[in-house]
Structure formats: structure tokens, C-alpha cells
Write a structure and sequence with these properties.
97 residues, mainly beta, Immunoglobulin-like, seven-stranded mixed sheet, two-stranded antiparallel ribbon, 1 helix, 4% helix
Length: 97
Amino acid sequence: MDGKGDYVTNATLKIGDELKLIVTVPDWTRPIAVHPVFSGRVDGDLAWNVNATGHSYVIDSGPADGTDLGVHVVYVVVAFADGSIVTSNNVTMTVTN
């Protein structure tokens, strides 16, 4: 999600904008966990409770700061109840001053 809240595959954000990733899976699936990968850094699993969030999950990493400056390839990995694991498409996120 870009700084304006639009869903995009290439986002340009400024320091202070929220770093948000949104992943949506088909409504017939049973996701159980998700984790973001930000420029190769794998963050921990987040439990996915479909009853609470539906089939879209928002990962809010908080406001961008100086350590986020630059161009980053980000994506998410979703684990499903049947044991399958799926990687989302890549998003290019550019953080500027």
C-alpha cells in the first residue's frame, strides 16, 4: 500500500509514511500464518485468523524511518492449513526523505 493508501506493486513512500503490506488469498483457502520479507530480511510469522481478518491480511510495520531509506523488494509468505506455502508477488518499495 502506498503512502496514499492505494494498492500498488510499486510504492514510493516518504519518511513517516506507514509501511503496509496487504495480502489477499482466495476465499476457499485456509491461511494460518503470514510473514513479510523486506529486502531479504525475514520477519517472524504472524498468526492468520480468518474469522478475525477475513481473507485479506494487513501487515503494518509502522512509520518509515531513516533505516528504511532506499529501494526494497518486499513480499509475503503465506502458510495454509493443508501444509502448503505460497510466496506473493514482489513489490518494489522506495523510501525517500
